[in-house]
Write a structure and sequence with these properties.
Blueprint: E1 6-12, H1 16-27, E2 34-40, H2 47-54, E3 59-62, H3 68-82, E4 87-92, E5 95-97, H4 101-110, E6 115-124, E7 127-133, E8 136-138, E9 144-146, E10 161-162, E11 170-174, H5 175-181, H6 193-203, E12 207-218, H7 229-245, H8 250-269, H9 277-291
Parallel strand pairs: 1-2, 1-4, 2-3, 6-12
Antiparallel strand pairs: 4-11, 5-12, 6-7, 6-11, 8-9, 10-12
Helix pairs in contact: 1-2, 7-9, 8-9
Length: 300
């Protein structure tokens, strides 16, 4: 029986060394039936030439404009479907894959026709035994949380299991899911988009599973990661957008607004948070833009 065709979609923006390291790890994969599509977002660091020279079998698409994480990846997802992909693997350029990763993911996905989205165990690249994400969950008030974040892996997540969402750094999606619920929501531009995608799939009856035997190492979001004001903006606006799109209960809205307004008040009034001025302004703008229906890329 032929293996399902997996299209690996990778977005690169001036990350030549990271993208080439990822492609080198993919060369070692034990899975046989896959293709790689690189989406280059106007890189100026020689990425395009380096990829074409070192990895001539990779498809490379140079994007004409920046549509954000969601919109840019959708270009690749659409191309993958047009070329007959059975599964689409959206993968960050700053990841490294274990040789068995893709085989484990596909095996888990193909084990049941009800499984629509699959994700690996994600480790910190600079701390290879420390978990970055063992899948995601939505808390009681729809807080988005990485399971196992910053825990040393000692086998506490031994089996494939259902989760609420999968980290966007490595998310494998069945073709039928995309055809039923659509691609990533481009209105989000960046942040919360993978959580919203997974929630959309779950609401349509698809199961989402985490596969600990499939391992990757992610260079982003280390323990000392300090997000900039842009992340604060998108995290604020897009969380509210997700609640609206999925008709969150009143209690969830009340908690979300309470948390947001309390943070804004603290960053505005308390002297010790003066250094958070740019984040405060970004959060205010996120709230303002949500209320006024402004979507897509942030305009400053």
């Amino acid at each position: 029986m032929a293996q399902p065709l997996v299209f690996i979609v990778i977005l690169n923006t001036n990350r030549r060394a990271d993208t080439c390291a990822l492609l080198a790890s993919l060369v070692k994969t034990t899975y046989g039936n896959y293709r790689v599509l690189i989406l280059d977002n106007a890189s100026t660091d020689g990425s395009v030439q380096a990829i074409r020279t070192s990895f001539p079998d990779v498809q490379l698409h140079e994007l004409e404009r920046n549509l954000g994480y969601a919109g840019n990846n959708n270009v690749g997802i659409g191309e993958a479907l047009a070329q007959g992909a059975d599964w689409v693997f959206v993968l960050n350029e700053d990841t490294i894959l274990d040789p068995e990763c893709l085989s484990e993911l596909v095996a888990a996905g193909e084990s049941s026709s009800s499984i629509g989205i699959v994700g690996p165990m994600v480790y910190h690249h600079d701390e290879p035994a420390v978990i970055q994400s063992a899948g995601g969950r939505l808390g009681r008030y729809w807080q988005s949380e990485h399971i196992g974040q910053n825990e040393v892996d000692h086998g506490q997540y031994p089996a494939t299991r259902e989760v609420d969402w999968i980290s966007g750094c490595a998310i494998l999606v069945r073709r039928d899911v995309i055809e039923q619920v659509g691609m990533l929501d481009e209105r989000f531009f960046y942040y919360w988009e993978e959580t919203e995608w997974c929630l959309r799939a779950k609401e349509s009856g698809w199961r989402i599973v985490h596969v600990p035997a499939a391992r990757i190492w992610h260079k982003g979001v280390q323990r000392n990661y300090q997000p900039g004001p842009n992340v604060t903006y998108y995290a604020t606006r897009n969380r509210l957008m997700m609640l609206a799109r999925h008709h969150a209960p009143l209690v969830v809205w009340l908690v979300a607004w309470q948390q947001t307004l309390r943070t804004l008040a603290s960053w505005t009034i308390r002297p010790k948070w003066r250094a958070m001025k740019d984040h405060r302004d970004a959060m205010w703008q996120g709230v303002w833009d949500f209320v006024h229906g402004r979507q897509g890329m942030r305009t400053v």
